[in-house]
Protein: tRNA N6-adenosine threonylcarbamoyltransferase
Organism: Agrococcus casei LMG 22410
Amino acid sequence: TTAPLVLGIETSCDETGVGIVRGSQLLANTVASSMDEHARFGGVVPEIAARAHLEAMQPTILAACDEAGVTLADIDAVAVTAGPGLAGALMVGVGAAKGLAASLGVPLYGVNHLVGHVAADALDAASIELPTVALLVSGGHTSLLHVRDLTEDVELLGETIDDAAGEAFDKVARLLGLAYPGGPAIDRAAVDGDPDAIRFPRGLTLPKYREKHRFDFSFSGLKTSVARWVEREQAAGREIPLADVAASFREAVVDVLLTKALDACEHTGTRRLLLGGGVVANARLREVAAKRCADAGVELRIPPLALCTDNGAMIAGLGSLAIAAGYEPSPADFGADSTLDV
Ligand code: KG4
Ligand code: ZN
């Protein structure tokens, strides 16, 4: 028997993603992004994102079918991100998924966005190797998960208590006069910079936080610290060494992300670390992750970038796993939950 053909819909942030999979076979991964519309605001504007999803939804579904070489009538099940994410954005996806599933007469599965990021690895590797620690870093979330089973044993070890890592890149880029999105701009600015030029704070790493916030993150203090440093230099009439500031800021983010991720591996006795989310594009993060994982004897898994950034294929992949595990479809009246737990 062949696995069911599953269409997945993702709208938790600013990407309208539609993916189609059969089992762990990736057939389509189509994404429309409203990123450009948010650029002049320096961050994702929820209302704009929701409206953009509404406009992009139908064309993206049809484009995904085209890419997979199937028609809507071939779809056996629909999966959709139920949360966490931006409430209005999620509602557009859940509404579209409900309409689609009802009209096709197929089951609908509401799934968790963060677990979807982990499921993305199954589409790359054909089967996912568990257990794993997963570090998920994007403009909307920064979370550390311990995953023993994708559908029934996912533990949230920690998350950001203020800004997401990608958000920190976007905000610091803005205060340095760099373009949006800030991650790629800071990566470029940092190329010839000295990562040790300025010692910016590593949030929540002091021993006093070990009890309550061992695996949590905080980036808003870092952002403020960069802002104060730049103000002081300007007030003293000195020119801002952009490359050094960018490299030192980036180093602080990367250092704290990987220190906590590898501490989580040690704490849970896990010899595998999976990265997901748009910040995974960061050149320094990839470099330091490779080095520290090798030193610690931890296997590092990084899916291709198109499966790391928000996408519908990972949601279809997780739906597919839920079906294989024998889960019941979501009840007809399920809603979008912006703070959905793993
Ligand atoms: O997963 P993603 O595409 O979706 C959203 O969260 O919307 O992630 C986008 C985030 C943005 O905050 C962007 O600045 C960040 O990922 N990002 C990066 C890099 N490329 C994108 N952050 C650091 N370095 C990069 N090279
Ligand atoms: Zn995401």
DSSP finds twelve helices and ten strands in the chain.
